[in-house]
Amino acid sequence: MNLPNKLTMFRIILIPIFILLLALPISMGAVVIAGTMIPVNQLLAALVFIVAALTDFLDGQIARRAHLVTNFGKFADPLADKMIVMSAFIMLVGVGDNNVAAWIAAIIVCRELAVTGLRLIIVQNDGQVIAADWSGKVKTFFEMISVILLLLNNVFFNNLNLPVGQFCLYVALIAAIYSGVEYFVKNRKVFADSF
User: Which segment of the chain is annotated as a signal peptide (predicted)?
Assistant: First the structure.
């Protein structure tokens, strides 16, 4: 297994740690950063999520520069992204001061599952693995930024009364809908062949 794929697998291993930190029933206290109180478990979960986001950036860069792009990587990398992002949005429903509305989490999770299902159908029918488009990359970027800011209770922007985490969340939602529709429109032949 090459380095980019190992980073992808490492990101998948971080998911249960991330979930556990947010699911802990006991209080671990809180810290104040830039005048914003952040529960310790949310801070630790944010750090785990940041490490996962960095591995996402690194594995793609290394794979392209070192010509280590594999079908496994093209499939597992976006799958790992979807797994951590879906876990984050589900866990953020009702967590923290800046929680995520359940309907937003539901739309994002449904989009992720639908696109993953489409990818599986295409692999099964054509043997072709679809790499992420620019719209999917924009969606992932805003999802990750919004999760980090929401976990950190909008730190650095809270005192300015700028809801940057929530803004990024809505941009991520719009990008999720757009990129999901784009995937299905670009690959509509899959459905034409099925009927």
Answer: none
Residue 38's φ and ψ, nearest 5 degrees, are -130, 125
Please state the domain extents for the chain: 3-194
Side-chain-facing half-sphere of 40: CA atoms under 13 Å = 7
Separation of alpha carbons 84 and 80, rounded Å: 6
> Whole-structure pTM over 0.85, yes or no?
yes
How buried is residue 185: exposed, middle or buried, by Cβ count under 10 Å (0-12/13-18/19+)? Answer: exposed
Q: Which two tokens stand for residue 171?
A: 């941009």
CB-based contacts of 172, cutoff 8 Å, min separation 6: 108, 139, 142, 143, 145, 146
C-alpha count within 13 angstroms, C-beta hemisphere, residue 161: 0
User: Residue 40 pLDDT more than 90?
Assistant: yes
Length of the chain in terms of residues written: 195
Whole-number pLDDT of residue 67: 85
Per-residue pLDDT tens digits for 162-187:
889 999 999 999 999 999 999 999 88
pLDDT at 190 over 90: no
Per-residue burial over 9-27, b if 16 or more Cβ lie within 10 Å, else e, is eebeebbeebbebbeeeee
